[in-house]
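Deliverable D5.2: sample structural annotation.
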Amino acid sequence: MEFKIEHQPVFTSLTVELQSGEVFKAEAGAMVSMSPTIEIQSKKQGKGLGGMLKAAVGGEGLFATQFTASGGAGEVVLAPPTPGDIIGFDMTGNTLLAQSGEPTWPAQMNLSCRRRDR
């Protein structure tokens, strides 16, 4: 999986290039375009009714979109819902402190998040 950030700093877009079988998830409604080899599936956020309510109250969407390169290699182009910038951050062996909640901007499926209260 490779990615390319373009049109910075305000109307930034993210192009994710997938090899056959690769999967990632992103915020619902973030997709601008995709190759015909990409399969889309909506997944609910949070675990159970309590998790869904927490996501809704916390400002997260109730659903995320899962993209799978099932018909061969392809690409997905994403953009944030409001004008802004995008940065890439390699999470290998790193910790990122951010607002609470599940990441809904593009994430590989094996990215795990856990909450740590202050």
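Annotation notes: The CA atoms of residues 100 and 117 lie 9 Å apart. The first strand starts at residue 2 and ends at 6.
The annotation will be released with the project's public dataset once the embargo ends.
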